[in-house]
């Protein structure tokens, strides 16, 4: 079957009013569209437990969002905005980070930025990132002076509601600059309900970078350079996945980040012990052979985006685009604070 390589093949019309600007008032009350070989079915997200069998395994990304956005003044004058992409070295001790900087002119090595009376120094440049040195450990500095980095397409500043609802209830490890948004729908009560059904729940960590919002700028999708993200899959999670497969259960990934981590570590249908942690720049497009994940829970994504390409690869391009048309028609809310979809792996890529 011919592999789709043109970005324009992954476009659809999305009315602006369907872009969710704020989360729903009650977590877990969003809508859920099931996309399977049998067609489309409409649910409330809290009813997702009905789609999960007792032999299945739910896999969550337990990353937490840093207050990664900083505002400051350049020593040469003028304001700038810093987005911390990755803290380097030991999280608890490190004073260095790779960052993106939005300013009228590029910051030169050796210059500094003033933030709340503290000087942050630019000590180098690595590709698109600046290497910044902070006066305190970076995590502490961000907690004191940073802002929650809500997605840029929302076109607004953070509000008090973002501090709680742009984090999952099961997040453990700070390091992401964007939330694993499929997990934002899950409540502690829903998790207990799923576990009460006998379903096992496993976790991994993938720290989402700002590159997740990077648009694809080439019509030929094979020319796109995917961003890198760090992940770690505990051995216990790997063992649970292999046990699930052995008993005929399904691996249900909550979010594209879980899919990316698991498929990055897959070799010959199992998780390679040598690949359970590290950086991944895996770019999943139609034609990709999924080895681990059987079902995916994910929000509705941007037209022409890398995440849309991933879900099209997983559930089939025609099926996904038809589902998105139905979602638009039925007034589903899109993107980070929007509604969700349940996708079942396609046996072919059309």
Fold and architecture overview:
With 350 residues, the protein is of the alpha+beta class. The chain folds into two domains: 7-65 and 161-344, QueA-like, CATH 3.40.1780; 69-146, Thrombin, subunit H (Beta Barrel). The chain is 19% helix and 28% strand. It has seven helices and 19 strands. The chain has helices at residues 138-145, 160-165, 188-196, 235-246, 256-264, 306-315, 317-329; strands spanning 31-36, 39-44, 57-61, 63-65, 69-74, 79-87, 96-102, 112-115, 118-126, 129-133, 173-176, 200-207, 229-232, 251-254, 266-267, 270-271, 277-280, 295-299, 340-344. Strands 2-1-19-18-14-3-12-13-17 form a nine-stranded mixed sheet. Strands 5-6-7-10-9-8 form a six-stranded antiparallel beta barrel. Strands 4-11 form a two-stranded parallel ribbon. A hairpin with a 2-residue loop joins strand 15 and strand 16 (270-271). It is globular. The termini are close together. The model has no long low-confidence stretch (mean pLDDT 93).
Write a concise synopsis of the structure shown.
The chain is of the alpha+beta class.
Protein traits:
alpha+beta, QueA-like, Thrombin, subunit H, 2 domains, 9-stranded mixed beta sheet, 6-stranded antiparallel beta barrel, 19 strands, 19% helix, 28% strand, globular
């Amino acid at each position: 079957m011919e592999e789709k390589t043109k970005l324009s093949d992954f476009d659809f019309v999305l009315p602006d009013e369907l872009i969710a600007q704020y989360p729903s008032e009650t977590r877990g009350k969003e809508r859920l569209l099931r996309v399977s070989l049998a067609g489309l079915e409409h649910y409330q997200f809290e009813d997702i437990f009905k789609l999960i069998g007792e032999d299945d395994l739910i896999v969550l990304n337990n990353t937490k969002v840093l207050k990664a956005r900083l505002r400051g003044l350049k020593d040469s004058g003028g304001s700038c905005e810093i987005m911390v992409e990755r803290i380097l070295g030991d999280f608890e001790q490190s004073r260095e980070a790779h960052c993106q900087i939005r300013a009228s002119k590029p910051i030169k090595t050796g210059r500094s930025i003033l933030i709340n009376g503290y000087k942050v120094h630019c000590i180098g440049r690595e590709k698109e990132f600046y290497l910044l040195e902070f006066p305190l450990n970076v995590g502490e500095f961000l907690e004191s002076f940073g802002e929650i980095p809500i997605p840029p397409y929302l076109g607004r500043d953070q509000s008090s509601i973002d501090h709680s609802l742009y984090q999952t209830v099961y997040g453990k490890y700070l390091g992401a600059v964007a939330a694993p948004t499929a997990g934002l729908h899950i409540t502690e009560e829903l998790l207990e309900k799923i576990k009460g059904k006998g379903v096992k729940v496993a976790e991994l960590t993938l720290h989402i970078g700002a590159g997740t919002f990077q648009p694809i700028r080439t019509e030929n999708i094979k020319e796109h350079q995917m961003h890198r993200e760090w992940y770690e899959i505990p051995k216990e999670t790997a063992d649970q996945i292999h046990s699930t497969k052995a008993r005929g259960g399904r691996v249900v990934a909550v979010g594209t980040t879980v899919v990316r981590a698991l498929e990055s570590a897959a070799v010959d249908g199992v998780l390679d012990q040598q690949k359970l942690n590290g950086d991944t720049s895996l770019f999943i497009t139609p034609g990709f052979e999924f080895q681990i994940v059987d079902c995916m829970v994910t929000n509705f994504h941007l037209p022409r985006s890398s995440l849309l390409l991933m879900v099209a690869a997983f559930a089939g391009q025609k099926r996904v685009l038809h589902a998105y048309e139905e979602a638009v028609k039925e007034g589903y809310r899109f993107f980070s604070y929007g509604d969700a979809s349940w996708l079942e792996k396609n046996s072919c890529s059309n």
